[in-house]
Design brief:
The protein is of the alpha+beta class and 258 residues long. The protein has a domain of 173 residues: Nucleoside Triphosphate Pyrophosphohydrolase (Alpha-Beta Complex). 26% of the residues lie in helices and 24% in strands. The strands form two sheets. Strands 1, 2, 3, 4, 5, 6, 7 and 8 form an eight-stranded mixed β-sheet that branches. Strands 11-10-9-12 form a four-stranded mixed β-sheet. The longest helix has 17 residues. The radius of gyration is 17 Å and the shape is globular.
Length: 258
């Protein structure tokens, strides 16, 4: 397993890495105080009762190390992308959701980096020798599943072919251009109508997926911290099912990309 090495990042990722400690703050900024308190209480309860479960996800950026098309504004190059999956609709937890590759820790993982890499290989078939883990983010608690999740930032100049390995776990694997997440036209807020206290979180409406929930919040926080975010309409608030109905079948972000 490759050790963490933030120095291996390309220059266009430096703004994120230099301010990575601010990601948790940016993540929490869009969560109401009442919900933050509920999340904190649920996290403490899980730890106290022994129900705490550790997990990790791989936040893999790919793109050129030296970019001739580097944007003077600091935006990532057009070739830069982010590895995202869509979970199978038959799974018990987070079914059908867009997510970073990742999952629960196994005893032999040796920590969150090992967990994130193992899960990414199992879900996407990625060649782990083609990527470099850079840094880990602060652990975050996800109440619906009870997981304490550590995002592991990583970089690859070229991750090679990726695709669905097990259709019972993963419906889609895609390398999504980072600029698709930055594009204000793709951004909105979504909420779940069954929630008694309505909380709308940042989401991204792409051709083959709606990225929302934990994954959407992390990506939104990353864009803010890296200085990549452009002004967008955060007053565009949609109910989750209505937003999902807008997802099309265009082929911009296909699995098994080379």
């Amino acid at each position: 397993m490759a050790p963490l090495d933030a120095a291996a990042a390309p220059s266009w990722l430096k703004p994120l890495l230099e301010n990575v400690g601010d990601v948790p703050r940016a993540y929490r900024e869009r969560v109401p105080a009442s919900m933050l308190a509920a999340i904190s209480a649920a996290s403490s309860s899980a730890a106290r009762t022994g129900a705490k479960r550790d997990a990790a996800v791989l936040v893999l950026f790919s793109g050129p190390f030296d970019s001739s098309s580097e944007d003077p504004s600091g935006a990532p190059p057009p070739e830069a992308d982010l590895l995202v999956t869509v979970r199978a609709s038959t799974l018990r937890q987070h079914a059908g959701q867009a997510a970073f590759p990742g999952g629960a820790a196994d005893p032999g993982d040796g920590g969150p980096v090992g967990t994130a890499l193992r899960e990414a290989r199992e879900e996407t078939g990625i060649d782990l020798t083609r990527l470099q883990p850079l840094i880990t983010l602060e652990r975050m608690f996800i109440p619906p599943s009870g997981f304490h999740v550590v995002p592991v930032l990583a970089y690859s100049p070229d991750p090679g072919p990726v695709g669905v390995v097990d259709e019972s776990e993963t419906a889609l694997v895609a390398r999504v251009p980072v600029r698709a997440f930055i594009n204000p036209e793709n951004r909105l807020m979504v909420y779940r109508k069954e929630n008694t206290s309505r909380f709308a979180g940042p989401a991204f409406l792409l051709n083959q997926m709606l990225v929302w929930g934990f994954t959407g919040q992390v990506i939104s926080a990353i864009l803010d911290v890296a200085g990549w975010a452009e002004p967008w309409d955060s007053d565009d608030v949609r109910e989750l099912d209505a937003a999902m109905a807008l997802v099309g079948g265009a082929s911009d972000y296909r699995e098994s990309q080379q």
